[in-house]
């Protein structure tokens, strides 16, 4: 991240006054480094994450055990991380997807139906299930961009439909992961052996890929442009519809990936999986990681850190034997504190010092 | 509702060297006639001020010229050839580029990303930020736009700087005809000077033809070669800037206002 750090620092320094006076010595260097660090949008959430990890590390002797860390990262964090990638891209382009948790829910059932009832081979069945997410994303894009229904409503509707489809087709009973899919499934998510890392590795790979897409490609630049100034982007000749359709489709795909991953990880296809909770966690991760709901700003790295914070709280409180009931109080407070902090930090950044 | 050309209005003849000619353009929006019959011409390197009160049809004309919307009737002739502008992109390919009131700048992006918006330099699939940064810097220096860094987000810049960047962006895109929509609106004297200087520089270079849409007569008269006045969807006045004055232009607009007022009185008394 050091390269981005330097680049952002350039942006952050008030340029009008010329180069800042360079003081020698270690203290000046630390001060400069600190100033660069705090100007990062992700700085706040990074500090929170480190503090939480240290706290739980001291509070519980088993927190940093391999089994708990893999559970934290692959079990709790990976699904939120992957969903938040899609939500960050959509939030930056000025939209939201409430249906992604129901793609999450339906995708593994679809795979199960295809393999067990229709005799489709494993790999095509997995690909079709992933394609489901893309198709749902396209429908969300069509209703939002082409028809003109706000995405909040569009995705509320498509979400309910997917929910109903899942319950109807599965009769609300859980299903077993098809045995033939296990050999491939373990690379997507598993609690056994070395494959226990596969979920978090996928999550980090997707984060790396989409971080580059967002910060280093035309797609990312145009996503920011569309969310930052819709009319301006259109007047510049950017195909606003293409960007929004695309980001809905990416978000849907992320939902399907997480759905399959969770099914393999839990080794069951659960009709109560997914739904609103993971979607809201993903949006929460995005927001506390510095993504603005108004569009135009946000980072995937921030959402990654936000997701790890949420996962650490979930995992840490359960390992300490504290009831999960007050968890939502903490999450709610975290969202509000993060937003207030971001607003204030943004003001400080605008003033050129932090 | 037709407006007769006002007394004393002269017309400059269209010439073969014109880069742009607009012939009999009209545009209606439902029951509202925005443009009745627009005839206009623009020579290479010329700066034309298109003046008019709010609602006279300036913005509609601009949107037609930059390909944002098609006219109902009439022709657009570019370098002697009739063209049909299919989209903003198409118009831009042909060298016509508009700088809008809202600037089409993206606050959240840096100056250089804004300058290359939708024309990014790419080493596929990755943006070539280094090249864009360098070229943007060089271009702004060439245009005399003072900016300490092209890395700042445009949200941080003043109104004049933002407008200058928007103009620079259009020029850099090798636009041959620049349409500036209210470039001096809500701008302080110092800020406006940045833009006026920029227009003067472009005029000296003589490569770009410019249409400035404005309702601030004084400042625009200073930099323009010729003035067109648009009233109720028609060009009613076409003179060299040197041959007219703020007073004359103001009188024209006031006279139209009086006429409209009289007409309303007359129709009101006829109805009563």
Describe this structure in words.
The complex is a heterodimer of chains A (354) and B (272). With 354 residues, chain A is an all-alpha fold. Chain A has one domain (79-342): ABC transporter involved in vitamin B12 uptake, BtuC. Chain A has 15 helices and no strands. Chain A has helices at residues 2-12, 25-39, 43-59, 66-92, 100-117, 122-147, 151-170, 182-185, 198-216, 218-228, 230-235, 240-266, 276-288, 300-319, 327-351. The longest helix of chain A is centred in the first third of the chain and has 27 residues, at 66-92. Chain A is globular and about 70 Å long. Mean pLDDT of chain A is 88; it is low at 1-23. By secondary structure, chain B is of the alpha/beta class. Helices cover 36% and strands 26% of the residues of chain B. Chain B has 8 helices and 12 strands. In chain B, the strands form 3 sheets. A 6-stranded mixed beta sheet of chain B has the order 6-9-10-3-11-12, sandwiched between helices. In chain B, helix 5 (159-172) runs parallel beside helix 6 (189-205). The longest helix of chain B has 26 residues, at 246-271. Chain B is globular, with a radius of gyration of 20 Å. The two termini of chain B are 21 Å apart. The model of chain B is unreliable at 1-10 (pLDDT under 50). Classes of the chains: A mainly alpha (354), B alpha/beta (272). Chain A binds chain B through residues 7, 10-11, 15-16, 18, 212, 216-218, 221-222, 224-225, 227-229, 231-233, 235-238, 296-297, 350, and chain B through 68, 87-89, 92, 98, 100, 102-110, 113, 117-118, 120, 122, 125-127, 129, 148-149, 151-153, 155-156.
């Amino acid at each position: 991240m050091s390269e981005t750090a330097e680049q952002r620092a350039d942006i952050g320094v008030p340029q009008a006054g010329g180069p800042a006076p360079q003081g020698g010595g270690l203290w000046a260097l630390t001060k400069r480094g600190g100033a660069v660090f705090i100007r990062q949008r992700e700085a706040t959430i990074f500090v929170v994450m480190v503090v939480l990890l240290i706290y739980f590390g001291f509070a519980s002797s088993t927190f940093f055990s391999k089994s708990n860390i893999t559970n934290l990262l692959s079990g709790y964090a990976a699904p939120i991380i992957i969903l938040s990638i899609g939500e960050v891209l959509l939030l930056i382009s000025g939209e939201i997807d409430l249906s992604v948790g129901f793609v999450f829910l339906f995708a593994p059932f679809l795979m199960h139906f295809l393999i067990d009832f229709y005799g489709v081979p494993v790999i095509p069945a997995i690909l079709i299930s992933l394609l489901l997410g893309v198709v749902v994303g396209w429908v969300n894009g069509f209703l939002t961009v082409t028809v003109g229904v706000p995405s909040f409503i569009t995705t509320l509707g498509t979400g309910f439909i997917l929910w109903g489809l899942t319950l109807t087709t599965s009769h609300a009973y859980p299903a077993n992961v098809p045995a033939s899919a296990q050999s491939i499934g373990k690379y997507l998510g598993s609690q056994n052996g070395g494959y226990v890392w596969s979920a978090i590795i996928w999550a980090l790979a997707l984060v790396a890929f989409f971080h580059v897409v967002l910060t280093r490609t035309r797609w990312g630049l145009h996503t920011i442009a569309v969310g930052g100034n819709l009319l301006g982007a259109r007047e510049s000749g950017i195909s606003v519809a293409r960007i929004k359709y695309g980001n809905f489709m990416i978000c849907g795909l992320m939902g399907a990936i997480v759905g399959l991953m969770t099914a393999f990880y839990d080794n069951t296809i659960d009709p109560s999986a997914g739904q609103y909770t993971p979607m809201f966690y993903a949006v929460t991760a995005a927001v506390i990681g510095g993504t603005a709901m108004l569009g135009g700003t946000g980072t995937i790295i921030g959402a990654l850190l936000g997701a790890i914070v949420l996962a650490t709280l979930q995992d840490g409180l359960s390992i300490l034997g504290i009831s999960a009931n007050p968890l939502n109080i903490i999450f709610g407070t975290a969202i509000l504190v993060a937003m207030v902090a971001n607003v204030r930090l943004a003001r400080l950044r605008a003033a050129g010092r932090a | 509702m037709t407006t007769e050309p006002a007394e004393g209005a002269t017309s400059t003849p269209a010439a073969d060297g014109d880069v742009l000619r607009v012939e009999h353009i009209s545009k209606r929006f439902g029951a509202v006639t925005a443009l009745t019959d627009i005839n206009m011409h623009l020579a290479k390197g010329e700066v034309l001020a298109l003046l008019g009160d709010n609602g006279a049809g300036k913005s509609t004309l601009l949107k037609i010229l930059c390909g944002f919307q098609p006219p109902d009737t009439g022709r657009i002739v570019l370098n002697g050839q009739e063209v049909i502008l299919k989209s903003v992109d198409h118009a831009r390919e042909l060298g016509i580029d508009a700088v809008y009131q809202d600037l089409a700048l993206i606050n959240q992006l840096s100056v250089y990303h804004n300058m290359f918006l939708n024309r990014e330099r790419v080493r596929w699939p990755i943006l070539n930020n280094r090249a864009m940064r360098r070229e943007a810097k060089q271009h702004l220096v060439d245009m005399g736009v003072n900016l300490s860094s092209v890395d700042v987000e445009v949200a941080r810049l003043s109104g004049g700087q933002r407008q200058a960047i928007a103009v620079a962006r259009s020029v850099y895109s090798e636009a041959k005809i620049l349409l500036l929509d209210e470039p001096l609106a809500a701008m302080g004297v110092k800020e406006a000077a940045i833009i006026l200087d920029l227009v003067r520089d472009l005029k000296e270079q003589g490569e770009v033809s410019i249409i400035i849409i404005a309702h601030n007569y004084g400042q625009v008269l200073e930099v323009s070669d010729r003035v067109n006045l648009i009233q109720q969807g028609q060009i009613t006045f076409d003179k060299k800037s040197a041959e007219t004055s703020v007073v004359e232009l103001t009188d024209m607009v006031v006279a139209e206002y009086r006429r409209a007022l009289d007409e309303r009185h007359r129709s009101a008394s006829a109805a009563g």
